[in-house]
Write a structure and sequence with these properties.
77% helix, two-stranded parallel ribbon, 434 residues, 1% strand, single chain, mainly alpha
Length: 434
């Protein structure tokens, strides 16, 4: 063993750097966020098909499409504090396992109420695990790479949507919508396995008084990252950091103590507005393509129950813009800073839909959908980054859950708006972005 050092956990993780070990820790949360993006987008494709197959009215279809988001909205704010009490890893493991199993069951249902019930349960399990998983991905890398770690939510979401689009292109012709519903959870089976094999965040263990366990995790991280076989002795954490019963009341007190009350409100507003724009776009885009509004041809809605290969390929191509937008945002974060990047992204996200509504003909709308997709995905990274840079570790999962709660409320409103406004005018639905 090399010489013993007595250091703070943050210093130890900074010295561990970013290598294979860090990537392995972040891979589980990354796949879980991919799974979330894919499962949300599944309903944007399956919904119009089930409208015809099961003769659903607008209310029933909207209820199905908001089911997962509604359950996440209800569970995230209530359950996320458990991630600050019991740990990030166990909550993410329970959540990812439940989502995978329920997703597989969804492929074998025979009635509307069965699918609705299962999608509600899926949302509950996403609420269990998604906030702790995102926090886990942010707590492992050193500060220099933390923006990349925090992009685990936004970047992985976009990749998940791309994977969903690719699966739909290759399997729906032969196996129908059930092939898509089954293919998504099967692809992400490694996700809960990774959570089962990795250790808890050393920052969480340290702040909860499990210093020895945190030391062992960091020592393993040093080995995996090629930093050698080094024994670490961690300092004692202070009284605030070792708070044992972090919940909503304790969270509010900590926000006041650290003067982060206004920051937390701003982050929740960012989460709401970002998800509203993103979900409105997500549920309108496939309909715009399938009804022919990008080609200059208009198809009667009742006749557009199936997605042909051309439309599926367009959906898959547009979805590629999501990870591209997030990567561009990450680069801008490093070169021009947080404030300028987020303000610029918000302005672009507003101006593009306005231009598409007033100025763009059908022939160019597809290109604008690509740009809107990229800008929305990048803008959605703002609240995730700010949570992990402003919020203390002991309330980070709770605040991540509160941000997700406000985001899911925005998403819920957007899905309802997308369904009913589109039936009035697709162009007005797109213009609602402004």
């Amino acid at each position: 063993m090399a010489e013993e050092d007595r250091v703070h956990v943050n210093v130890a993780l900074e010295e561990a750097g970013c290598g294979i070990g860090t990537i392995l820790y972040m891979l589980g949360p990354f796949l879980f966020c991919c799974l979330l993006g894919a499962e949300i987008f599944v309903l944007a494709i399956v919904g119009p098909i089930l409208r015809c197959d099961w003769n659903l009215d607008s209310f029933s279809l909207t209820a199905l499409q908001i089911s997962t988001t509604f359950a996440m909205m209800c569970s995230t704010g209530l359950i996320s504090p458990l991630g600050d009490k019991f740990g990030r890893r166990p909550m993410a493991l329970i959540g990812s396992t439940g989502v995978i199993l329920i997703g597989i069951l969804c492929a074998f249902i025979t009635a509307y109420w069965q699918l609705l019930t299962l999608r509600l349960l899926m949302g509950l399990f996403f609420g269990f695990g998604i906030s702790p998983a995102v926090v886990l991905s942010a707590e492992m890398p050193p500060k220099k790479y933390r923006a990349l770690g925090m992009s685990g939510f936004a970047l992985a979401w976009g990749i998940g949507v791309c994977i969903c689009g690719a699966i739909s292109y290759f399997v729906m012709d032969s196996y129908g919508w059930k092939g898509l519903v089954l293919g998504v959870p099967v692809i992400f089976l490694p996700c809960p396995i990774l959570f089962a094999c990795t250790r808890e965040s050393p920052r969480f263990d340290f702040y909860r008084g499990a210093g020895k366990r945190a030391e062992k995790t960091i020592q393993n991280l040093y080995k995996l990252n090629g930093k050698g076989d080094k024994r670490i002795n961690l300092e004692e954490s202070n009284g605030l950091e070792t708070l044992k019963n972090a919940g909503f009341i304790a969270t509010y007190k900590i926000l006041q103590t650290t003067q982060n009350t206004k920051n937390s409100l701003f982050i929740m507003i960012l989460g709401f507005s970002g998800q509203f724009c993103y979900y409105l776009y997500t549920y309108i885009m496939p309909k715009l393509l399938n009804e022919g509004y990008c080609s200059g041809e208009t198809v009667v809605i009742k006749e557009s129950c199936e997605f042909d290969k051309k439309v599926l390929s367009e959906i898959a191509a547009i979805n590629v813009a999501e990870p591209v937008g997030v990567i561009a945002t990450l680069l801008l974060l490093e070169f021009i800073g947080r404030r300028k990047t987020f303000i610029g992204g918000a302005v672009v996200s507003c101006l593009l839909p306005i231009a598409a509504y007033f100025c763009v003909g059908n022939a160019y709308l597809l290109a604008f959908l690509l740009l809107i997709c990229a800008s929305n995905a990048g803008a959605g990274l703002a609240s995730v980054v700010l949570i992990n840079e402003y919020m203390p570790t002991v309330i980070r999962s709770t605040m991540s859950g509160m941000e997700r709660l406000s985001a899911w409320i925005g998403a819920l409103i957007a899905i309802i708006a997308a369904e009913f406004i589109f039936n009035i005018s697709p162009r007005i639905a797109l213009g609602v972005f402004q």
